[in-house]
Amino acid sequence: MRLGISAKTHAFTLIEMMVAMATASAILGVTVTSSIALQRSFNSTDNYLATETQQIRIVDFLARDVRRGLSVVSSVDQQTVQLQIPKYIIQAGDPEAILNPSLIGTPRSPSRAIVSRDYNINYGAAPPSFVEYKVNGASIERWEDGVKTTIASSTDNLLPQTIDTELANTEYTTTSITFKPISVADRSGTIVYATAYLRNRRRPPP
Amino acid sequence: MQTKKNTKQTGNVLLCVLGTILIVSLIGASVLRNSTARLNASSNQVRAWKEALSAAETGGDIGFAELRMHVGSDPSTWWAGWTPSGTGHGYVSPETTFGSSNLRARTVVETCYFDASGVFHLGSNPDPNANNWYRVRSKGTAPLPNLKRTGMDDALTNDGLTHFAPIGSTAMQDITARSKGNSLLRKIDFQYDHFVATYGPNGDGLNKALITASYAPSFSRRVEQIVEPVTPFFDAAIKSATSFYGLGSAAWIDSYDSRNGPYDPTVKTNPASPYYKDSRHGSVEINSGIATIMGTIYGDVATNGGNVTGKTANVTGTIDNNVPFTLLPYQMPDTSTWAYQPLPTNVTSTKTLAPPSAGTSAAPIYYVFTSIGGALTVNPAVVSGSPVDTYVAIRVTGDISGGNAGVTVNPKVHLKIYFQGNISVKNNNLINQNPSLPNPYAGNLQFYGISPPAGTPQTINLNSGQPATLAATFYAPSADVHENGNPDFIGTVVCKSFYSNGNISWHYDRALNDEGQLLDFRIASYVEDTR
Question: How far is A153 from chain B (nearest CA, A)?
Fold first, then answer.
């Protein structure tokens, strides 16, 4: 004799169903929660690294300008830095470019003057290019002769602070930059330091 | 009894598990991908970019070291391993690979000079007595390991903006013409050298070409430095290591530039003169605090922590008491390439030198005397019946002294006297007639005091005589100088100590700035080509 099995016996009982649903819900909950946590962790890490990249970019921009600079002055609140750098490249609107537009973008030959019993090597007619770094909202801006470049922009409160120290014939800047990561409440542990010296003999600021 | 297994339930569980693993894996992969890109940007690219500058500056150091080797050395040893740059004005270094990151450096050193107006010229200074300047352009390259990728936030996108502004483009504004984010700052050469392709090898828009980058990808940075010669007579009428007193109360020190014409005594008080600026460089520098100013100084006074006394109100420029400097003992330069003449060996009475050939500034006609006690006249060499510019060097192993001792430099003679002993002569026995007696150039009669052993004094006494013009330069860092007369002095004195109470009219010639024995080199300017 063959015993037939009713299809109804394949169904779950209510208890089985509830246990299964509870287990599935728990597994799904854990999965979703883990995924969200992982995504948040990723976002935090990505955001931290992205902001750190901007920190380094700011100090590298500033250090490059200080190295080739002729003078540097930081403001009292240490938020703004003003430099003079040689006008090495002929730009549109420069006297040479007006006479010969094909010179735009080419390097300029230096000229020589004697000031205070020493040589000054100049590129182009005075004054040199004026460069200013400043904070504007969430952005760090670099202005060169009226042209703006946003070198960093972050909602993580990038806070640059620069001081300049004058020596007999040279000068150096010490910069620190912090930010407040989205994952933690304070800035501790996010600081980047940089020191850069003028390669040229220091000149009076404008 | 046989029961039927429900395989659908097993499949559902498997799918759920696989789906979960897929989601987690995707998130993990995304984290890894982004973290790697960030790490690449924040570590490898930053490091390589900084190392490229280190390599470029190393190239500059190599060029600078090569130039410093030229001081007082045999020219046949210069530029060993370097190749001509092709411009006819310079040399290119061999490519140097160094460091654990295989950094590469290459340098181009080109001879240049500045004319009286301060305008730059490539090539050697047309004045054979003047020292050349140099333009040192160096390129440093650092390989960028790992994959060819930029940072995540600065990829060059098709956004309609100009990322590489060509030569002549009005969009050129240094870095602002290129992209965003890190690419504004760090310009990676993924395949080709973007600089040569866009601006040409010299950055002047000429000879642009697609050149495969020496490393791909890599960073290259370029630095230009202007190197100046350190010369003995730069921008000071009197330079004393230990003390200064002078001049007479009615004396004055001013300056002029003989390249603009003869000395004019009215310029120093005439601001309307185009050469007024040149008249205010009659400066005095003392590397101590002992300075007594008596006459009028149309220039600056500088001391090393000093307290200037005397007629300080008669200094038209500034008094700066924080200007230390160093005067090293002077050594006889290398004479191996000079055209040595065995006779005569001394000057005890009147004697005239007739050099057999013209010589050159670098390889002059060379005599060695034990002393000069009489009147020495130096004539120019005669070529094809005509006198020619003649370069003569005399080494005196003893003193230049005596009532009749003196030197006369005739037109076209450029004379340098290296003395080991002392000088005691009358002002009017030092006669410089090149180019002419009324308008002599001090650079044509140069005295160099070879420093004696430490503790041994060396003196230069310029004694009173008939009023005359004394046009000469003295570089004697170990000598005590006494100017006992009141000549019309054109030139400069660099010494250990200086004393004079004569009412001298002293004129420093700014044409001496680039003249004299090359002492060393110094970097006068640094600029990075950020394109």
Answer: 9
How far is residue B275's CA from residue B84's CA, in Å, rounded to a whole number?
A: 40
Q: Which of B61, B497, B28 is nearest to B243 (CA)?
A: B497
* Pairwise CA distance, residues B429 & B297, whole Å: 26
Q: What stretch of H or E contains A46?
A: helix A14-67
In angstroms, the CA B290 to CA B430 distance is 30
Residues A45 and A173: beta-carbon distance below 8 Å: no
The beta strand positions in B176-330, using DSSP E, are 188-189, 218-230, 238-246, 252-256, 284-286, 290-293, 296-297, 301-302, 309-310, 319-320
d(CA B375, CA B154): 78
Select from B50, B55, B45 the least CA-distant residue to B223.
B55
B51 pLDDT above the threshold of 80: yes
CB contact under 8 A, A107 and B166: no
Q: B137 or A125, which is more confident?
A: B137
CA distance B17 to chain A (A): 10
Question: What 3-state DSSP class applies to B435?
Answer: coil
CA atoms within 13 A on the CB side of B362: 11
Contact A84, A130 (CB under 8 A): yes
Within an 8 Å CB–CB cutoff, is residue B529 touching chain A?
yes
Q: What is the pLDDT of residues A113-136, one digit of tens each?
A: 988 778 999 998 878 999 999 988
**Chain A residues touching residue B1 (CB < 8 angstroms):** 3
The percentage of residues in chain B with a pLDDT greater than 70, rounded to a whole number, is 91
Write the ipTM.
Answer: 0.85
Secondary structure, 3-state, B112-145:
EEECCCCEEEECCCCCCCCCCEEEEEEEEEEECC
A88 and B224: CB-CB below 8 Å? Answer: yes
List of residues 6+ apart from B84 with CB closer than 8 A:
B90, B91, B92
CB A134 within 8 A of CB A80: yes
* Tokens describing residue B434: 């090149």
- Residues of B with CB below 8 A from A112's CB? 114, 118, 120
Selecting from A106, A112, A199 the residue whose C-beta is nearest the C-beta of B167 gives A106
